[in-house]
Amino acid sequence: MPNDQLQVLNALDVAKTQWYHFTAIVIAGMGFFTDAYDLFCISLVTKLLGRIYYHVDGSPKPGNLPPNVSAAVTGVAFCGTLAGQLFFGWLGDKMGRKRVYGMTLMLMVICSVASGLSFGKSPTSVIATLCFFRFWLGFGIGGDYPLSATIMSEYANKKTRGAFIAAVFAMQGFGILTGGMVAIIVSVAFKSHYKAPPYSVDPIASTVPQADYVWRLILMFGALPAAMTYYSRMKMPETARYTALVAKNAKQAASDMAKVLQVEIEAEQEKVEALTKSEANSFGLFSHEFMRRHGVHLLGTASTWFLLDIAFYSQNLFQKDIFGAIGWIPKPETMSAIEEVFRIARAQTLIALCGTVPGYWFTVGLIDIVGRFKIQLMGFFFMTVFMLGLAFPYHHWTENHIGFLVMYAFTFFFANFGPNSTTFIVPAEIFPARLRSTCHGISAASGKAGAIIGAFGFLYAAQNQDKSKTDHGYPAGIGVRNSLFVLAAVNALGFLFTLLVPESKGKSLEEMSGENEEGEIEVVSSEPSYARTVPV
Fold first, then answer.
1. Are 346 and 330 in contact (CB under 8 A)?
2. For 76-85, 197-206, 386-395, 468-477, which range has the lowest pLDDT when averaged over its residues?
3. Could you write out the DSSP letters of every residue in 165-183?
4. Phi, psi (5° rounding) for residue 332?
5. Interatomic CA distance for residues 428 and 439, integer angstroms
6. pLDDT confidence of 528, banded at 50, 70, 90?
7. CA distance 360 to 170
8. What is the dihedral of CA 360, 366, 372, 375, to 10 degrees?
9. pLDDT band at 517, cuts 50/70/90?
């Protein structure tokens, strides 16, 4: 680092890995644990909701959510998340990371509990209430994306910053895993206490009245880990980069970080004033100067996240449909309602354990060695390969379930040891401090737009091409095999758009600004040092 950089930022960049780094990972990571749990646990209970609220007397198959209801229940949280990412991302740059962080967490806790308390006597009122609270749950979750990434990137040292941000994101894997395990525990407990025959034996008795508690308990559990970290979030000091470079309070930034790092740090208010008044540090998000410096970068981070999430969320949310299509989960009519929850949860937990969780931690271990760019390229490449490997001999996999499962797990492994992690990390590193949270929010919202396409589109696309074999109420689709071809093409596009994203390994956040060289020319020669420390 240059000698003329702000001492407080230099201290953060060169700090050895300390206890406060791990504290920050846990505090930010528990938010992500809750995010993943809440977003993915709905896929465990949609079949149960169909059996409870949409049973049709005399039907040979159990009740199923109508297409529009299923799409609403599955996708409404993503709509909320997209809105939350944009709103809280912007607010994080205006009000500060810490102040907004508490708001998002409380919203998540309240709406997790409220989702499980969805009330009403008719199916319409229960589903409408559930959708209302899941929208606002998603809104809170959306805020956690830009804020968690930004806080961790601004706290971390430059040597291991990638691993720290990746570790926060890796908690998503544990959230998905815990969702499956909670569903298994709850379903086993209810199954042992309330015996029920398969649907084909007794359609009414196969769904015991107590099954209504199962989905509510699964949804409400998501509030617990978030509530446990609220106090810790409120005790975290504001990041020094926000306090110094955006709020322009050098004294507070130095004081906060001196306590965290346990070293003496000079305030340097005059240097902060000079930095923040620099012409190079004043352009806005919609300015020509921003587009010139960062337009391609923002296009790269937004497009790759968009394409990744189309594939990632369509896979994750509809695992149960894919498992059913290859016969890994028995036909619904051969099971009771709670047995079906157990089978779906078991399959999803196995995939999380074998493919999802390991991929995240490979990223944590290797991102600061290999680099973000190479990991993202590799991830998109292998996701494309494994999708095609599933699609071409698809009819072979319908008889070789273990082989299909291994291939499917590898697509998840390379999503997480690949673009699912890097698309979250890079936007928190390459934009200016005053726009960092906003730009991350825009990139993340693009991802959620992709997730909505994946969630809604795959719901219809994966239906059998034979109308007589589709789920009740759905039109004929293109089938799982053709859907896998589409997803492979999406991944290949992600590979190409990755070429727009810069490598940030080993560089300070201020170096990634790109203003160092230009600033030395623009700023008067008597004070060249200021040009070197202006954040872009």
1. no
2. 468-477
3. HHHHHHHHHHHHHHHHHHH
4. -55, -35
5. 8
6. very low
7. 5
8. -70
9. very low
Residue linked to tokens 């200021």:
530
Does residue 385 carry a pLDDT above 50?
A: yes
- Top-confidence residue, 204 or 325: 204
The C-alpha angle with vertex 279 and arms to 513 and 252, in degrees rounded to 5, equals: 70
Extract the tokens encoding 129: 């209430």
Q: How far apart are CA 431 and CA 439, in angstroms?
A: 7
- pTM for the full model? 0.88
Length of the chain counted residue by residue? 536
Question: Which amino acid, residue 505?
Answer: K
Residues 229 and 25: their CA atoms lie apart, in Å, by 12
Both structure tokens of 323: 């498992």
At residue 280, the 3 state secondary structure works out as helix
Query: Burial level of 468, CB count in 10 A (0-12/13-18/19+)?
Result: exposed
Q: Are 117 and 176 in contact (CB under 8 A)?
A: no
Residue 145 has pLDDT above 80, yes or no: yes
Model confidence pLDDT, tens digit, residues 237-257: 898 888 888 888 888 988 888
- Tokens representing 469 are 């074999």
- Cβ neighbours of residue 132 closer than 8 Å, sequence gap 6 or more: none
pLDDT confidence of residue 102:
87
Give 127's pLDDT tier (boundaries 50, 70, 90).
very high
Q: What angle do CA 280, 101, 296 make, to 5 degrees?
A: 35
pLDDT tier, 479 (very low <50, low <70, confident <90, very high otherwise): confident
Q: Which two tokens stand for residue 135?
A: 């929208």
**Burial, 466: exposed, middle or buried (Cβ in 10 Å; 0-12, 13-18, 19+)?**
exposed
> 163 falls in which pLDDT band (50, 70, 90)?
very high
Closest CA to 29 of 109, 148, 163: 148
Burial of residue 489, with CB atoms counted within 10 A of its CB: 0-12 exposed, 13-18 middle, 19 or more buried: middle
Mean pLDDT on 424-431: 94
DSSP string, 397-449: HTT-HHHHHHHHHHHHHHHHTTHHHHHHHGGGTSS-TTTHHHHHHHHHHHHHH
Q: Check if the beta carbon of residue 74 is closer than 8 Å to that of residue 455.
A: yes
Q: Which residue has the higher pLDDT, 265 or 536?
A: 265
Report the sign of the C-alpha dihedral through residues 110, 113, 115, 118, in that order.
negative
**Can you read off the two tokens belonging to residue 427?**
């936007």
- Two structure tokens written together for 132: 């209302």
Query: What's the whole-number average pLDDT of the chain?
Result: 85
Spell out the alpha helix ranges (H) of 262-400.
Answer: 269-277, 288-317, 319-325, 337-351, 357-370, 372-391, 394-397
How far apart are alpha carbons 181 and 179 in whole angstroms? 6
Residues 510/9, Cβ–Cβ less than 8 Å? yes
